[in-house]
Amino acid sequence: MESEYKMNKLLYKLEAYLKMSVSRREFMKILIGGLVYFLSENQFLKFAFAKNSDAMPRVKKSIDCAHDLVAVKGLNSGKNVEKAIELLGGIEKFVKKGDVVLVKPNMAWDRSPEQAANTDPQVVATIVELCYKAGAKRVNVFDIPCNDDRRVYENSGIQKAAEEKGAKVYFADHWNVLKAKFPYKSAMEDWPIVRDAVVCDTFINVPVLKHHGLTGLTLSMKNLMGVCSGTRGLIHIDIAKKLVDLTDFINPDLTVIDATRVLTKNGPSGGSLKDVINLDTVIASTDPTLADTYACKLMKKDPMSVPYLKEAFERKFGKSNLEKSDIKELTI
Amino acid sequence: MKKLIIARKFFQLLFLGLFIYVIWSTTYPLNSAISPKLLFRLDPLIMFFTSLSIRQWIEGVSFSIIIVAFTLIFGRYVCGWICPVGTINDIIGIVNKNKWVLSPGLNANIIKLKFYILFIVSFLAILGIQAAWLLDPIVIFARFVSLNLIPASTFVIDKAFAFAIKNFELYGEFYDFYRYLSKNLLGIKIYFFENSESSLSIFLAIAIFPLLIPRLWCRALCPLGALFGIFSRFSIFQRVVNKCTDCKKCLNTCRMQAIKEDISYKKNECVLCMDCVYVCPVEGTSFKFNNKKQHFNPAKSKGTISRREFLYILFVSLPSLGFVNKKNKIDITEYKNVIRPPGVNNEAKFINTCVRCGNCMKVCITSGLHPILLKSGIEALWTPQLVPEIGYCENNCTLCGEVCPTKAIPELKLEQKKKEKLGLAIIDESICYPHSQGKQCIVCEEHCPVSDKAIKLKDTTIKLKNVTMNNGEVIKLPYVDKDLCVGCGICQNKCPVRPIRAIRVKGKL
């Protein structure tokens, strides 16, 4: 009897529910409520309007090297790199077994290697080879170029040279970024930075030494702009502070400056072979400021004339005194 | 077994796939087996009338003559077996179960329409105006694939992968697979072409027709079909009826309604779809090489246009002379906002030669070329223009000239192309950061691809009235060297000033 009573009650409720007349206003309420529920619970839309997650600065490995800076001069750029890293203490100091390594060359322009607007492919290929020898799990190579990436990757010769040695060369996706967060107040706060540049075990910065209209020279700090997404042109406003902050954020473990061929005029894109001189030098250091200062000396330029180096000196970011540092120069 | 129908469907799908593949592969390395030019060079309508209207022999005309020559043997085989729009019509027609069979009188009237269109096109071509691009099916479908289908599918693939990778943290092999896909297969970076919805609407209209009447487009409007129809009158591959029980099944099945009441057929309407061969209950119908006249009522199986009608069409198309007058009045100095692709120096000739196939827009490596609507007059509808804010003209690239089937964009050598001026960059000093606010910014100078930079820097002490904080500092002010600037638009593309860029390129035409 009891179960029948319950059943009847349920049926009665159901009937009442079905017979319930809904006014237009109520219908609209239900519709809007349903829509709001749909929008708030929809995973795809959640993703579409999601903000990028934050990233704290990369932690730099503390490495004791044999020298503060090594500069090797020789006709074969690949051998120069090998020798320079060997003199620093060997690649094993930087790359441990199973590491994910990012090699960030300067390949921003649709130019051939001879035009010296991009890093020498031989230098990149040698570094990739060394990393794999040290037992790296994976070596990534990418840059966000200024010209179209398909043309740049192919014409700079880096894609071919690095892929031959087993590196993963790919285009950076602008959706795969993290927002940079700083422990201090910075103009680069919240700037989107490619995820792979932050989430990696070892960051090797491989810039090319060349002329630049605003900063005089393009060096390792300027090269780090290549991992920034967003409207990169805005970095040029107040460039000194932003670049030092960015270097502080990325903290490259090793900086290898390629000064094999140097563009002396019409930089950073260049284009004319008349402006290119051969220095046949490779500079390696763990300290980006020191490496950049030495490169300025190599070009017979006052480091204080380069805005971001001046800023780095004032903030005492890295070593800046060449005389007090342990510098090893070698000619093969 | 309906062998012939299976063969037809196979070829239709094969050519549809091939067509989409060729357009899909019209991208940076340009290493596809079939040249993207070839698609359009096989199309007699656009090739012949473009050649006629610019009074110049185009390479592709000889290709298209081969296609027309085969028509003399096989009739409208292109419509039934090859044409992608015909295939789309057939595929959509599958949904339509209750086909609307028009009354013979109405049908006879609407099939004349396409001849009207063809005569207007040819009449304009004789006067020196190329209008074949408007209703040529190959071009309409190519535009649909280049400007709508491929960007839309790229959008879906990109977003789906990005969603999956970010949400489920698939940063390993799966991400590598996506990178491989986007690097080697997708080949286009934007999801939407400006003004492409207007060209999509024409394709959609064609795609909706067969939901009512099968192959209405091919029957009534297609000027290419009309061209083949004229030549197929002389074809020797004909439909032969040996036995007939007068059941009139073929008459109601025929997708072109080409079969008459007396079971003879209009040769210039038949697309050789082979339906009537298999629908016949006594198997009396077949297609054969046949020079003899047909068994049933041969005298009445003439073409569809009489001499009187021809004169009438000629008279009707006279108002289109209005185009000519307008053409002569065009003052080319008024086109200041349209930046044409490199090498285009004569606007009037460019509009006439361009067939609006969309190849240049698909291939453009930065996706900077977009169709225009009425910016340069109605006769320039859907011609390409460079939109520097979306994509600039890559200095070392000659792709658009390489894929243009009619050489409206001339095929230039790289050295020549680098000197070609597209326009001139002009700095808007009222919003430019260094000029108006005294902030260092040299983005335009740094990106300028000309070897001796066309944008130069001048050290200047700031003396601005409104800004006080930087006054007295020495900063670098950019200025444009008018002789060196090629107007590639990379400065406008990279300029950080928003929403309007501080350096803008003006077209030369």
CATH class of the domain at 323-418 in chain B: Alpha Beta
Q: Which CATH architecture of the largest domain in chain A is right?
A: 3-Layer(aba) Sandwich
Tell me the major beta sheet of chain B. Answer: 2 strands, antiparallel
Task: Please state roughly what percent of the residues of chain B sit in beta strands, choosing from under 5%, 5-15%, 15-25%, 25-35%, 35-45% or over 45%.
Answer: 5-15%
Helix content of chain B: 40-55%
CATH fold-type name of the largest domain in chain A: Rossmann fold
> Which chain pair shows the most residues in contact?
A-B, 37 and 40 residues
Tally the beta strands of chain B.
8
Counting H and I runs of at least 4 residues, what is the number of helices of chain A?
A: 12
Determine the oligomeric state from the structure: heterodimer
Would you give an account of this structure?
The mean pLDDT of chain A is 86. In chain A, the strands form two sheets. In chain A, strands 2, 3, 4, 5, 8, 9, 10, 11, 12 and 13 form a ten-stranded mixed beta sheet that branches. In chain A, strands 1-6-7 form a three-stranded mixed beta sheet. Chain A is elongated. The longest helix of chain A has 18 residues, at 2-19. Chain A folds into two domains: 2-48, no CATH class; 54-331, Rossmann fold (3-Layer(aba) Sandwich), CATH 3.40.50. With 332 residues, chain A is an alpha/beta fold. Helix content of chain A is 36%, strand content 19%. Chain A has twelve helices and 13 strands. In chain A, a hairpin with a 3-residue loop joins strand 9 and strand 10 (216-218). Chain B has 23 helices and eight strands. Among the domains of chain B are: 240-302, Alpha-Beta Plaits; 323-418, Alpha-Beta Plaits; 421-507, Alpha-Beta Plaits (2-Layer Sandwich). The longest helix of chain B is centred in the first third of the chain and has 32 residues, at 137-168. In chain B, the strands form four sheets. A two-stranded antiparallel ribbon of chain B has the order 1-2. A two-stranded antiparallel sheet of chain B has the order 3-4. Chain B has a two-stranded antiparallel ribbon with strand order 5-8. Helices cover 46% and strands 8% of the residues of chain B. The radius of gyration of chain B is 28 Å and the shape is elongated. Chain B has 509 residues and is mainly alpha-helical. The A-B interface holds A 43-44, 47, 50, 110, 146-148, 150-151, 155, 168, 170-171, 173, 175-176, 195, 212-214, 231-234, 236-239, 266-272, 275 and B 28-29, 162-163, 165-167, 171, 176, 179, 182-183, 365-366, 394-397, 433, 439-443, 445-453, 457, 476, 490, 494-496, 498.
